Amino acid sequence: MDNLDDLSKIAELDKGNVLGSIEALPKQVAQAWQEVSEIAIALPDEYRSVSHIVVSGMGGSALAGRILHSLLSSSNLAPIEVVTDYSLPYYVKDDTLVILSSYSGNTAETVSAAHDAMSKGARVFIVATGGKLAELAKENNINSYIFEAKQNPSGQPRMALGYSITANLALLNKLGFTQVSNVDIEKIVKDMESAVSAFGARTPIKDNLAKLYAAKLKDKIPVLIASSHLVGIAHAFKNQLNENSKAFALFFDIPELNHHLLEGLRNPASAKSFIHFLFLDSELYPTEIKKRYPITIDVTEKNGVACDVLKIKGQTKIDQVYELLVLGSYISFYLAMLYGIDPSPIPWVDYFKNELAK
């Protein structure tokens, strides 16, 4: 489709109702915060005295761990590691909190990691909607958040990030590893509702930042650039461009890219016509990071590569994470619309899983 203001065409393409899941992100956050906070209060004291935190998950279910790792790394009382594999690190033992996250509860790698965590005597917490992990939790009396995804009409795990991010955040908060209040979450939900209104399908393209950026990224390879607390959510944005828009997209972080990528902008020269850098900038980045952005943008432009700067404006780091969650979700959705694609099905991922299961 060519007109992102054509609501009937959007409804025709979006057969799986991904748009409905994006619109419900604020409600996902509110539901997960309330439900997990109530569960976590009753957890044993041993969960509050761990020295390491490991989040095990794959794809969309791993993104919550990546997001919290980058958001809380400078303030959390215990280091967070994200594991996307069948087994856990060697150091996992009874002083480790292992959060097993799988939307379906049947992800093979995460189920395997669950057995590994149990054998190592770790403190385990499961986040899922059901499946094998829910059965494991019931059979072994494992603490868990088995939730009904009432606010994810698409049924796609990647569209349930409001649940997964907030469930993990609420758990760590109630265990004393971070300090987020009910008032903070109420503000986040309110701000997300405002973002849904600003970026929603009924807001015309001339006033809609998400539609404008989707139009800029059509027929381009998006290259997302972020730093510090936005690294994890930028990774999620990239994944949604892959899965929702069915688009090739890349992600790099500053300062790391300054040590290699700048020299890679020369060749092949033909690539410059279809690469588009999107710098996810924030006033909350550390001073030494903020200094790098204008210089990196200057080098990008001098090499003839198109770029834009997207200012993330939330007042706090956690505000900005949820802000970008909404904005990135909408951009990926509108890009799918411009490509004339139903964003919900992931045929090649499903094909791979089916072949692997043979």
TrEMBL record:
It comes from the Bacteria. Pfam families: bact-PGI_C (PF10432), SIS (PF01380). The keyword Isomerase applies. Belongs to the PGI/PMI family. The keyword Isomerase applies. InterPro entries: Glu6P/Mann6P_isomerase_C, SIS_dom, SIS_dom_sf. Signal peptide: none annotated. This is Bifunctional phosphoglucose/phosphomannose isomerase. PROSITE patterns: SIS. GO terms for molecular function: carbohydrate derivative binding; glucose-6-phosphate isomerase activity; mannose-6-phosphate isomerase activity. The lineage of its organism: Bacteria, Candidatus Woeseibacteriota. NCBIfam families: G6PI_arch. GO terms for biological process: carbohydrate derivative metabolic process; carbohydrate metabolic process. Keywords: Isomerase. Residues 43-186 form the SIS domain.
